[in-house]
Amino acid sequence: MNFIKIGISGSHRSGKTTLATALSKEIEIPLLKTSSSSVFKQHGLHPAQSLDFKTRLWIQHRIIEAAIKVWRQPNFVTDRTPIDFMAYTLADIQGATDVNFAELEAYLTYCFEVTHQFFTKIIILQPAIPLIYEEGKAALNRAYMEHLNSLIQGLCHDERLKCPSFLIKRHITSLEGRVRAVLS
């Protein structure tokens, strides 16, 4: 039996949940929403705050644990993937960041394994829609979003990823156009 397990990957505020909802309706399979923001809140953190590497890696493990509980279905469309989780972790690493590389590598390996276990296709959604501030959401910093976009695209071309990925072109901003692009 062929299962359909589609993950929408992209930076925050790019329309992942909106696209996942529309795609779910179009192909008539369940929408499985994740909420990184709620995991941050549950642990007394905020998605827009700066975190040291140890704290970032710790919260990213909590986020993937929460998502795995959601992804245990035979067919679904979801608004986050382990690719996103890796990108956010990597984006926080700067020149002076104190990184335990063995822990980072173990986390990245784990995220690739989870991707292979739970997904049949990754859709990359680039930042292209107008930004709207929402309380409790990550910062509206275009440069940071572009950084995440580059990391996500790079991770989707990493030889460790066996799951196929599809990039929605940046100029496709309408919801209908994005759904058509995925289904073509």
Question: Could you characterize the architecture of this molecule?
Answer:
By secondary structure, the chain is of the alpha/beta class. It has one domain. Helices cover 48% and strands 10% of the residues. The protein is built from seven helices and five strands; from the N terminus they run βαβααβααβαβα. A five-stranded parallel β-sheet has the order 2-3-1-4-5, sandwiched between helices. Helix 1 packs across helix 7 and helix 4 runs antiparallel to helix 5. The two termini are 22 Å apart. The mean pLDDT is 92.
Brief account:
The chain has helices spanning 16-27, 36-42, 53-70, 82-91, 101-118, 142-156, 175-183; strands at residues 5-9, 31-32, 76-78, 121-125, 165-168. The chain is of the alpha/beta class and 184 residues long. The relative contact order is 0.22.
Number of separate strands:
5
Shape: globular
Number of helices: 7
Overall helicity: 40-55%
What's the N-to-C terminus distance? 22 Å
Record the strand order, biggest sheet: 2-3-1-4-5
| SSE class | alpha/beta
Structural domain tally: 1
| Biggest β-sheet strands, sense, barrel | 5 strands, parallel
- Mean of pLDDT: 92
Radius of gyration, rounded? 16 Å
Question: What ranges have pLDDT less than 50 throughout 5 or more consecutive residues?
Answer: none
